[in-house]
Amino acid sequence: MVLNIREALFVYQLQDEEKIRWHSRVHAHGRDEYELHYFLQGGGSFSVGSTTYRISPGSVFLCPPLEVHTIQTIGNDHPLTYYAILFAPDEGADAELRELLTGRLPRSLYRHVGTNYRFFFEELKEKVASSSSARRNSGIHQFVSFLYMLNEGPGSFNYGDGSNQHIEKALKIMQGRVTEKLDLPTLAKRVGLNESYFIRLFRQKMQITPMKYFTRLKIEAATGYLLGTSQPLYQIAETLGFYSEFHFSKTFKQYVGVSPRGYRERYRQNIEGIDS
């Protein structure tokens, strides 16, 4: 391998106070570790070293090893949604890639690439978590290509073919309508494909059906409500478009492995243990 992707995270609408404190902490990574952030939604600032940048949708920031950096939000009215990739060159990385990271790319890099890279990063996240070495390696090489495009500048960012654009549009719709009810016929129509082809294409690209992905997004949003608010379960279920509190609890447990009530109680116990 040319590099090792150690973590690939998707942070949806950063609102919970504990998560904000964690993601906003001033920190640096290891001697060979780089971290890339790609912001899709919200506002705030990104500080790396002595430089502070304004966050806007479509911003990309690359932090070098040992460089102190932090994210500052501007309140829950503009919650941040972003991908974060932590990576390090492998021992077998070629000299050209190392020279790209240490020489050609600015030490603290900022680019604005637009918001059409949802699919790129969602696919990358799925690939590097795959049990298939072929898919993991495919994701790594995909990411290396992105790093080279960062070096070339904004004119090089034109990702994907027509089928990727359909998935990109679907992801944008789903990520923007998490608190709404959205059915497959409506989504397929918005994307401009018939339902059967849309399902096949989405599953081929994302390794999951579109509505299962949409449910996963709702569960990600639910964790924020559970940890960041005192709203009762029935209210969270209603906010996120579940049929009932029972339906919400059953679905949550399927995806997370614990009930919403248990998830909230475990979190509170962890916080009490940290504070005591």
TrEMBL record:
InterPro entries per record: AraC-bd, Homeodomain-like_sf, HTH-like, HTH_AraC, HTH_AraC-typ_CS, RmlC-like_jellyroll, Tscrpt_reg_AraC-type_HTH
Molecular-function annotations in GO: DNA-binding transcription factor activity; sequence-specific DNA binding
Keywords: DNA-binding, Transcription, Transcription regulation
Pfam families found in the cross-reference section: AraC_binding (PF02311), HTH_18 (PF12833)
Keyword Transcription recorded: yes
Tagged with keyword Lyase: no
Name of the protein in its database record: Transcriptional regulator, AraC family
Entry-linked PANTHER family: ARAC-FAMILY TRANSCRIPTIONAL REGULATOR (PTHR43280), MMSAB OPERON REGULATORY PROTEIN (PTHR43280:SF30)
Domain HTH araC/xylS-type stretches: 168-266
Superkingdom classification of source: Bacteria
